[in-house]
Amino acid sequence: MTPPSMGVTCAAATHPGLVRTVNEDSWLTLPPVFLVADGMGGHESGDLASRGVVDVFRGLAAREWLDSEDVVRTINHAAAEVAMLRGHGRAPGSTVSGVALSRRDGEPCWLVFNVGDSRTYLLRDAVLTQVSVDHSAAAQFAGAPRNIITRALGAGIEQPEADQWLIPARQGDVVVICSDGLSNEVSSETITATVRLTDDLQEAANRLVQFALDAGGRDNVTVVLVRCEFASGATSGTMDRRTLPPRGDGRIEYGERR
């Protein structure tokens, strides 16, 4: 039996927020990979760091799908590129969180990956689940500051350790990828309702960013939405989590839907 052909619809929106003047977030919606990278505030060249991460992942655009080794290799390459940006200040760094189109036994899957405190969620059957795990002091220690992250690309960390999860894709799945400028300002309930009740993904992304601004916009905010659309049939399954060894202006900017 021929596996179903998986297609995706995607959208993205970003804004520097109402406090910061520089947007240190970057994003990519270029199949087979979709991601958000958040340059680390307080470090030198945070915006360049996140762009560097995106530029490295852009090199995967010719691929139909990726496996875990592809992701590890690319994350290590990105970390090395970020490390080369170092000047006289604190070492530049960036988070990265996202999803790649993948396969297991021929079946289409989401391959979620994460380093840092940007997040990747899966909206399935009206339930929003945070797939990624925050690599932050606040996630590990009660009362710790939220702005301290424990894993990053660059930031003086030689070998970033990425988490990965392989999730069989289902018709109608929506992957939500965001920087903490969204997740710190907008509740999971609001994210769920907005994506569920807005048919157009670009409109949903725009609304989510606006909600973050309405809540104070204290940080850069970026969101990427990716929806699964099978040509025929559907797949189902449960999450398979794997932790990889260390290797390696006042307006919303709109992403291009592909």
From TrEMBL:
Stretch list, region Disordered: 236-258
Stored SMART domains: PP2C_SIG, PP2Cc
Domain PPM-type phosphatase: 9-228
An example Gene Ontology molecular-function term: protein serine/threonine phosphatase activity
UniProt cross-references to PANTHER family, sorted A to Z: PROTEIN PHOSPHATASE
Classification via Gene3D superfamilies: PPM-type phosphatase domain
Biased composition range(s): Basic and acidic residues: 239-258
Source species, domain of life: Bacteria
SUPFAM superfamilies linked: PP2C-like
Source species of the chain: Arachnia propionica
A Pfam match: PP2C_2
UniProt protein name: Serine/threonine-protein phosphatase
